[in-house]
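On clarity, I found the account of how folds are encoded harder to follow than it need be. What matters is that the chain and its backbone geometry are given together, residue for residue. For the editor and my fellow referees, an illustration may be useful. For illustration, here is how one protein appears when written out as sequence plus structure tokens:

___
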Amino acid sequence: MIPLSTKMRPERLEGFVGQKHFVDEGSLFYNSIKNKTFESAIFFGPSGTGKTTLARIIAGELDGSFVEINASTTGIKELKEILKNAADRFHGLMKETTVLYVDEVHRWNKLQQDSLLKAIEEGIVKFIGSTTENPYFSINNAILSRVRNIYEFKHLEYTDILTILKRTLTDSEKGFGGLGVQYDEEALTILAKMAGGDCRVALDALGFIVDNLSEGQKLDSSIVAEAMQKQTTFYDKEEDKYNLLSALQKSVRGSDPDAAIHYLARLIDGGADEMMIGRRLMVMASEDIGMAYPNAISIVTACVQAARMIGFPEAQIPLAQATILMASCPKSNRANEALNAALSDIHSRKIDAVPAHLMDSHYGGAARLGRGLDYKYPHAYGGYVTQQYLPDNLYKEGVRYYKPGENGSEGAFKKYLDELRKIDKTNDR
């Protein structure tokens, strides 16, 4: 039996949903397909985001031969035969280029990948490779240099998945349009959100549900919960999500790793996607940890990126690491407070111009305007020299926006800045 996710693949570009950052109508990518000028490319991103579907659409739009293979099941012998047949078509009477789609191309070794080079270079094939791995690490540089672009596919927005689910329920040719399935709007929304950006998951779940509905039974949230084997109460109240995110941040800010991991678990169990959680974690790394442990933002960002790449369920592991790290390390909001104080001054009072010695002097005539003439290059003075940087009125007032605390690494930064200010006082005498 053909899975619903396979049956519902659109055949024309107009029917493709998602990836609007490069597939949108009028984009260069879109026009290259319509104008039949599309060149070799690599599609990179998580499963269920449209890589195979788009490759098949491109092949159909280009009106050429199409060969689709999976790198995990195709060896070099089969590949050479495919390339030989493509060369025969290209050098024959029709001069036909073959669109060669290689799914999971990262699974090929260097020798197998290199077998494609001549065919790509001579235009015998228009190569499309898809991978869930970062192509800059998993694909040879020789291949990367010969493809036109690397297109990153992102998890679908739940609204995109919802559009596809509704299309499926009304499509009489490939979907369930002829069955008159009754459904709650809320139930479809829940299913779209639970799919975690993976359209294949959503469609195959919908197929399972519709195939097994009792006569006259309505597709509601309880049916979705049964099909997905997951509670749906989280999705019934949109505000719950924000309450849990707020509790997570406040627990981290309060240095309570047990409470923080509890709220993270509730978010994950309720179906919150990794980027919803990840965005809040990255904000917290700067807002609440800040200068007390400056490396937190780098570590947390790496954890969020890892979560996004591997997807759930494994994504919960780096998210938990980031949460525990931040709840357990020193806290400072002084960088955020400094910015807010500076913005407040900008919005509420007149600020003098940038001092002339700090203005750009890399153009003809700057010296005649007095720009940059008295600037002292700190590196020429061993790394620091007393000099005015604030606008005149703020400098004369002795304004200080950043007021470092003593927590963690910020204590060392405070000590360093205090020493510099002692030097300034000595030089001002």
Remarks:
- The CA atoms of residues 338 and 402 lie 5 Å apart.
- The chain has four domains: 19-152, 158-230, 237-328, 346-428.
